[in-house]
Amino acid sequence: MFWDEELETISQNKLKELQLKRLRDTIGRVYFNVPFYHKKFKEINIKPDDIKSVDDISKLPFTTRQDILDNYPTGLLAVSRDEMVRVHTSSGTTGKPKAIFFTKNDIDRAADLIARCLVMTGMRKNDVLQNMMTYGLFTGALVMHYGAEKVGILIVPAGPGNTERQILLMKDFKTTALHITPSYALYLAEYIKSKGIDPTKDLYLKRAYLGAEPYSEETRRKIEDIFGIDVYNSYGLSEMNGPGVAFECEYKEGMHTWEDNFVVEVIDPDTGEVLPDGQKGELVFTTLQREGMPLIRYRTRDISRIIPERCPCGRTHRRIERIFGRSDDMFIVKGVNIFPQQIENVLMSIKGVAMNYQIVLESLDNMIVRVEIAKDLFDGNVMHLVNLQNRITEELRKEILVKPKVELLEPGTLPVSEGKAKRVIDNRTL
Ligand code: ADP
Ligand code: ZN
């Protein structure tokens, strides 16, 4: 079922036309109303009229996180501050957060995109969504909340944490869907198992939306198996509204990017050159409908690729692949580039491994992978532990080409985060 069938299945040609119209409109607005963009465009001698096709976007300069920070808080607004009805922030890497402002229409459009995502994955008015993202300055919870409300879904605005209460809410309100970070979902799965709860009998869950941080296909499968539900990947970032930028449909093979609202590009992160569909690189987004704070060619640092093939669901908006990692999450050991997700993928595919892990970088050549394993393994034969440790080491070496030191821990040893998980501890002194 569709929320907006006409737009979701629009022909590629019509979509391109619509994008061009909206792109030109956006460029015009930032050129005349945002001094930062005016200056940037002037420097390379580009005028709004020079954009004759969507591909001409590659002539425009990028916007970076640093640009948002430098213009904190209101420097990038395209209409008066008085028109703004909400501000969200995201962590940012340095002291100041990145502030993103929304007009009333911006909020409404963000909610509309979420409505598409939820209906696309089978949600209806009679569903109950337990929203376990952090309510507050982050976009995750509130943007989803407004979208679900639009569909008419009952929302349980639980926020993260207090797992005992979460289960109570799930039972009492007959929650059918969760919106949750992958790391908290893994914790919740462990918790439910330890309490002897059978999710397929004691709960009413049908699906979960996992996003806000990278996770592996193996993690998805693990959560699906334990809860007996469908897990859909949800991608977004505050700079582009928050959740609802790209979302999986029933086929769960890549996430449809709502191209009537965003131009998506994949670039070579080193040269800035646009890569053809299918090639892996850094995602870059341009807003097409934003009034308050339009952003041109925003560099996400997220690594993915555009899937060129049509999706059998009938939606024409191109899909992006599961995020491979953030370029700033990547670390180097013995000269090899490694993403935390590669390690997660291996760990989650090994029987006996529980839900939590941590990567500790000791030096340029040494890393430790600390991994929680099933409790009963500690009570059994010690040789089993040694075998498991060797197996994990060997499987990791095959994947990342570096042999880590592997430590096995009892469940509950490693810290659990309520927000985004911190998987990598960097003890290297440079
Ligand atoms: P930040 O984490 O930079 O403070 P946000 O809270 O806006 O900013 O989070 C957006 C980031 O979260 C994305 O750029 C991406 O790195 C990550 N993210 C969000 N959803 C997913 C997902 N489904 N898979 C992988 N990474 C994701
Ligand atoms: Zn699809």
Helices and strands in order:
Blueprint lengths: L4 H4 L3 H22 L1 H9 L21 H6 L13 E7 L7 E6 H17 L7 E4 L7 H13 L2 E3 L6 H10 L4 E4 L1 H13 L4 H4 L4 E5 L5 H11 L2 E8 L4 E7 L6 E3 L4 E6 L13 E7 L10 E7 L1 E2 L11 E2 L4 E2 L4 E3 L2 E3 L1 H9 L4 E9 L5 E7 L2 H4 L2 H19 L4 E5 L14 E3 L4
Parallel strand pairs: 3-4, 3-5, 5-6, 6-7, 18-21, 19-20
Antiparallel strand pairs: 1-2, 7-8, 8-9, 9-14, 10-11, 11-12, 12-15, 13-14, 16-17, 18-19
Helix pairs in contact: 2-3, 5-6, 8-10, 10-11, 11-13
The structure holds adenosine-5'-diphosphate and zinc ion.
Describe the structure.
- The protein is α/β, with parallel strands linked by helices and 430 residues long.
- The chain folds into 2 domains: 1-328, ANL, N-terminal domain (Rossmann fold, 3-Layer(aba) Sandwich); 331-426, GMP Synthetase, Chain A, domain 3, CATH 3.30.300.
- The chain is built from 13 helices and 21 strands.
- It has helices at 5-8, 12-33, 35-43, 65-70, 104-120, 139-151, 163-172, 182-194, 199-202, 217-227, 340-348, 376-379, 382-400, and strands at 84-90, 98-103, 128-131, 154-156, 177-180, 207-211, 230-237, 242-248, 255-257, 262-267, 281-287, 298-304, 306-307, 319-320, 325-326, 331-333, 336-338, 353-361, 367-373, 405-409, 424-426.
- The strands form 5 sheets. It has a 9-stranded mixed beta sheet. A 4-stranded antiparallel beta sheet has the order 10-11-12-15.
- Strand 8 (242-248) and strand 9 form a beta hairpin.
- Helix 5 (104-120) crosses helix 6 (139-151).
- The longest helix is centred in the first third of the chain and has 22 residues, at 12-33.
- It is globular, with a radius of gyration of 22 Å.
- Bound molecules: adenosine-5'-diphosphate and zinc ion (ZN).
- The site of adenosine-5'-diphosphate has 17 residues, from strand 7 and strand 12.
